[in-house]
Amino acid sequence: MNTLTKVVDKGYPGMLVFAQTIKNIDYDHCTGKDIIEYHDKLTAGFIVEISDYFEQYYLVKYFDGATSFHWGIDIFYRKEEENSLTYLNG
Predict the structure, then answer these.
(1) Nearest of 10, 21, 15, 14 to residue 69 by alpha carbon
(2) What are the sequence ranges of the domains in the chain?
(3) How confident is the model at residue 43 (pLDDT cuts 50, 70, 90)?
(4) In 10 A of CB 11, how many CB atoms?
(5) Engineered SS bond to 18: which of 9, 42, 55, 90, CB 3.0-4.6 Å?
(6) CB count, 10 Å around CB of 7?
(7) What are phi and psi of 87, to 5 degrees?
(8) What is the pLDDT of residues 53-82, one digit of tens each?
(9) Which helix (H) or strand (E) holds 71?
(10) Architecture of the domain delimited by 4-85
(11) Residues with Cβ < 8 Å from 62, sequence gap 6 or more?
């Protein structure tokens, strides 16, 4: 993930992203905090839609056809690809 940058608020529809998907959510009764466990590999897909109700919240469609909402801090993009594809942004 060294070459990847967090999307945060820079996402746009059609952007190629790599999502960090959640494997398991657990609750620690002692500390009162949620423990989130992520899959080891990132999942590639495209941003389909930006949420109208929440900031930095994106609908991502994966290459296997599944869709899922993600916060901007859980999805990444390659900055060098963005620079080389700027002519596509019209």
Answers:
(1) 21
(2) 4-85
(3) very high
(4) 20
(5) 42
(6) 24
(7) -70, -20
(8) 999 999 999 999 999 999 999 999 988 765
(9) strand 67-71
(10) Roll (2.30)
(11) 19, 43, 44, 45, 68
